Amino acid sequence: MHRRTILKSTVAWMAVAIVAPALFAGQARADAMVDAMAVVQKYAQKATAWDGPTIGPKAQPGKTIVVLAGDLKNGGILGVTNGVEEAAKAIGWEVKVIDGAGSIGGRTAAFGQAMALKPNGIVINGFDAVEQAPALEQAKAAGIPLVSWHAGPVIGPDEKNGVFANVSTDAMQVSTAAADWAYADAKGKPGVVIFTDSTYAIAIAKADKMKAEIERLGGKVLEYVDTPIAETSQRMPQLTTSLLQKYGDAWTHSLAINDLYFDFMGPSLAAAGKAGTDAPINVAAGDGSESAYQRIRAGQFQKVTVAEPLNLQGWQLVDELNRAIAGEKWSGYLSPLHVVTADNVEFDGGPNNAFDPGNGYRDEYKKIWGK
């Protein structure tokens, strides 16, 4: 009897030992799912309240500024450029836009043209500041204030590179939101391919964060693909076909640091017999381009973009330059991000295929400037 009791106890203990890890794993997955969905829902809401600056210097009169656009084919860079032009008109400044056309040589030449114009300020739009270090030194020596959009992983002043303020949403929040959506959509079992471009420090930081978040939650990163964003039209069709052949149905979601990667995947996916809403499901951690909005609305090979308020950020860049010219500190403003899906694609500027918050930012900046 004693031996039988011991035997029964041993069997019972072994049963618990076998079942417990499965129960704990299931609970951990459930907790991760709740956390992931909470992050997504937080950033999918309407943006109706202004949380930016309300005080600052009045408009500095008669200024001319130059926008150095990394590549105007990039929807994010184009959106910010349009915002700068709109804000400059409101503040009473002249704007000249020079396109770097997606290459280091093109951006070097553009910076040279900008310096020859002797502007009152320069906007570095969509490329790493360190790439043009000699030109930055020249601008600093000439006393020309610099502001930037996505010129590095640090938001705000970049004293090392002489940038008064680098404007961005929190890139790590953007990456987390994208990864969390993919995890939740895959019901806790995503097989992810991540697309990034090591030319840009911010792109690597975003991709690394997405990889870390997927793995932290318990998902699987199938491959981490480093391919130039400026060459997506040439590279993505064949790369998509190769990845489909390599991973098949295990590839459930794509995570990219920019919508541009998905501009050229559709034909390859369709040729492989995929419908617009079939896996792999494409999710972009920036920037909310016009084509991304159109794909999401139509259900064609993209379900999510984590959009930045590009036009608002253009206004912020002008405000930051105005503060620099007036000898004041940067505003400290961190602009909001927005998880765009088919459910909320018509919110906050959606009909115009952009995240343009309905928070009255134009009027708020005009008040600051006395316009």
Automatic annotation (TrEMBL):
Residues 66-329 form the Periplasmic binding protein domain. GO terms for molecular function: carbohydrate binding. It comes from the Bacteria. Residues 1-30 form the signal peptide. Pfam families: Peripla_BP_4. It is found in: Cell envelope. SUPFAM superfamilies: Periplasmic binding protein-like I. Its main location: other. CDD domains: PBP1_ABC_sugar_binding-like (cd06315). Gene3D superfamilies: 3.40.50.2300. Keywords: Signal. One of its GO terms (cellular component) is cell envelope. Belongs to the bacterial solute-binding protein 2 family. This is Sugar ABC transporter substrate-binding protein. It comes from Mesorhizobium tamadayense.
